[in-house]
C-alpha cells in the first residue's frame, strides 16, 4: 500500500513533466494543424542549453534554466519561420509537412550529438534527501518540478483566457478561416505559438532532466509518443484536454509500476494510446473539425 | 404511383447539443429528379451525409430500394447503387481524368490481390472495355480531349464535369448531388442541367439534388422536398410549394427570394 | 582482386536489399499514402524471426538466449520471418488505419518502433537483448565451400532474383485495378469509400504487402551478414529508405531503384571513406544523418515528385470516331436553354 501511495506521488511528478510537454505540443498543433515530429528534439535542446548555461557559462541554475527555456522557444520560432512556414505557404499537403518535421528531428538529434556527444550529464544541483509529506516522498527537485508545472499551467490558462494573443490562438485553433477573416494577424500569432510551444518543450526537457538526474541529448526522444498519448487522450489541439491527458498518463504509468516492472512504463502509455485510438479517437474533450 | 427508391423515416441527429436533423421523413420515387431545398442550416447536407452513410443517425431509418441500410457503411450502400457527390469537387488530383473514371467501376477482376496478380490477362481485357466505355462517357461530357490530363490540372468547371461523369461511370441507381451547381458559370449550369436530364431519361438514374438555385430546380426537378430546421416542411412540385404559406415564410418569401435567384 | 570482388558483391547485395525496402515503403506511401515512420522495425522483425526459426535451440551455457530456436530449413525460416513482419504490419494497421487522420498512423508507427526497440533490447530472453543475434545460419553454406567470395556471389544472384520478383510484383500491382484503388485512396479516401470500395481493406492490404516486402529485405540482410543487433536499427536507417524513395520518386518503382542507388549505395559508401575524427568517433555517422535528414527536407522543397516522377497512366485505346469529339463546353457558344435568370 505504501508503495502504491508512493507511486501516486511519482505519478504527480511525471504528470507535471508531461503537462508542460503536452500543452506545448497541443497549443502548436491546434494553431498550425499538423503534428511536429521534431518536438522530442526540442526537449534535448532545452536540457542541453540549460546545461551549457549553468556548467560552461556559470550562471546560477535557475537563470540557466530560464535561459534554456527561452532559447528553446527562439530555436522553435526560428525553425518554424525558416523551415516549416515556407512549406505551409507553399501549401504542401499534410503528408509532406509530417515528413519534413520527421526529417527535422533526425537533423536536430544528430546536431545535438555532434555538439554534446553521447555522454551522460548532470545539472549542478545538490541531491537533497527526500522530503516526506503525508504518505508521499519527494526530492526537493521533484517538489520544484510540481511547483513549476502548476505555475506554468496557471500561466497558460491566464494567457489563453485573458490576453489578446491567447484569445487569438484559441480562435485560430477553433476555425482558421474565421479567425483570419475577423482580422487576426495569423502570421504573428503562429510565430508566437511556435515560441511558446518551444519554451514549454525546453522547460519540459529541463524538468525531465532534473527528474531523471542523469541525462543524454536524446533522453527526451523516447518520451515523444508518451506526449502524443497525452495529447490524443485529451483531444488533439485541446489545451485543457492535454493537461488532463498528462495527468492520466502520468498517473497510470507510475501506478502501473506497483504491479509490473518499471521497464514497461512506456508500454502502458502505448496501451492507453491504442485503447484511446480504438475507442474514442476524438479524445476525452473532442475538438471540432479535428481528428 | 411509382416505387419509392429511397425512404427516410424519422431521422434524428444531433451534434454536441445542436439538433441538426429533427424527426425528418420523406421519400423519393424511382426515376425522378428531386430537389432538396431549404434555408442555410436546414440540415440538407447533413441529410445527404445520413443517406449516403457518412453519418449514422441517432434515430430513424434509411430505406433504399426496400432494404433498410441504416446500419450499412457508406461503401456497402454505394455497392447497392446509392452514390453521392460532394459539395466541393474532390477529384483524384494526381490521376488522369480517364483513371478517375476507371477507379470507380465496381466488380473489376483485378480488385482483389489474387485477381491483380494472377488474372492479369482478364483484367487487362476488362480495362480495355472500361476505357472504351469511359471514353464514351467523357465524350458526352465534352471531356474526351482532356482524358489524359491530370484531373488536378483542370479548371473548376471541368472538375465539376469530371465529378458527374465519374458518378455515371459507377452506374448508380440513385445519385445524390450535393450542390452540384455551386460556383459554376451560368453556361455550365445549363450544361450540367441538360446532362442530368439526359442521364435521368436515358439511363433511368434517379437524382436527389441539394440546390439553392430555384431556377435550376424549376427546370429539371419534377418534385421538391423542402427542409427547415432539420424537419421536412413540405413536398410537391415547385408550383404547388409557391402557394404554401409555410414554405414561403421559411424559405421562398422575403429577401431570401432575390438572394436565391442570384 | 578477391578483396575488390568481395566488396563489389557486398555493394550489390546492399543495393538489392535497399531496393526491396524502398519498394516496400513505396507500396505503403507511394501507392496508398500510408506514413510508416518505422520501416526499420519491420526489417528487424523479419530478420529476427528468420534467425530464431533457422537457428538451433539456444545453448544456455554460452549465455546467449533467444526464443524458439527451431532449426528449420532456411527457406521455411525465411517464410516465417516474412510472415512475422506482415503480421506486425497488420497489427499496426488494425490500430491506426481506421478512419483517422494520417498523423495518427505516423504516431502509431513511431510508437511501435520505440516499443519494439525497447522490448527487444531490454529483454535478454527474447532475442538476446542489446547484444543481438550472431552466428545466424546462412543459406547456401553447403554449396559455397571453397572461398568466402563464393557465398557472396551466390548471394548476389539470390538477392538479385528476389529483388526482381519483388519488382515485377510491385509493377503488376501498380498497373492493376487494385493498385489504382490504392492510388485513389492516397488522393482522397472518402471519395473512394463513397464509390463502394472498402478503403480500410485496401489500405490494410497495402500496409501488409509493404511490411511483407520490407520483411523480405530484412531476412536477406541477416542472411548475408549472419548477425544483427538493435544498435543497427535506428531511426537513421528508416530515413535512408525514406530519403531514397523521395529522391528517386514516389509511386515510381524505377525511381525507387535510382533512389536506393544514389542514397543507400553511393552516398552511404562515399561517406564511409571519410577518415574518422579520433576525438569524435560519432562525428561522421552524425553528419551523415544530418545530411540524410536535410536531403529529405530539401527534396520535398525542390522536387517532391523525385528524380523520376510518377508516370502518367496511358491506355491502349481505339480513338473515338465521333463528330462530337469536342472540347470543353466553355469553349462553345452558350445555347440558352432558358430565358432570363432573375425570374425565380
Written description of the protein model:
The complex is a heterotrimer of chains A (291), B (262) and C (344). By secondary structure, chain A is mainly α. Chain A has a single domain, classed as ABC transporter involved in vitamin B12 uptake, BtuC (Orthogonal Bundle). Helices cover 73% and strands 3% of the residues of chain A. Chain A has eleven helices and four strands. In chain A, strands 1-4 form a two-stranded antiparallel sheet. A two-stranded antiparallel sheet of chain A has the order 2-3. In chain A, strand 2 (131-133) and strand 3 (136-138) form a beta hairpin. In chain A, helix 3 (61-89) packs across helix 8 (186-212), helix 5 (140-162) packs across helix 6 (164-174) and helix 10 (239-256) packs across helix 11 (265-279). The N and C termini of chain A lie far apart (40 Å). Chain B is α/β, with parallel strands linked by helices and 262 residues long. Chain B folds into two domains: 4-91 and 174-261, P-loop containing nucleotide triphosphate hydrolases (Rossmann fold); 93-153, no CATH class. Helix content of chain B is 41%, strand content 24%. Chain B is built from eleven helices and ten strands. Chain B has helices at residues 44-52, 74-79, 97-104, 113-118, 120-140, 156-169, 186-203, 214-220, 238-242, 245-252, 256-261; strands at 4-15, 18-29, 33-37, 59-64, 67-68, 82-84, 174-178, 206-210, 223-228, 231-236. In chain B, strand 7 (174-178), helix 7 and strand 8 form a beta-alpha-beta unit. In chain B, helix 3 (97-104) packs parallel to helix 6 (156-169) and helix 5 (120-140) packs across helix 6 (156-169). The two termini of chain B are 35 Å apart. Residues 254-262 of chain B have low confidence and may be disordered. Chain C is mostly helical and 344 residues long. Chain C has one domain (2-331). Chain C is globular. Mean pLDDT of chain C is 86; it is low at 323-344. The interface between B and C is large, with 73 and 52 residues.
Tally of structural domains of chain C: 1
Strand content of chain C: under 5%
What is the CATH topology assignment of the largest domain in chain B?
A: Rossmann fold
Number of helices of chain C: 12
Query: Would you count the extended β strands of chain C for me?
Result: 0
The low-pLDDT segments of chain C are: 323-344
* Helix residue percentage of chain B: 40-55%
Main interface pair?
B-C, 73 and 52 residues
Q: What's the overall geometry of chain B?
A: globular
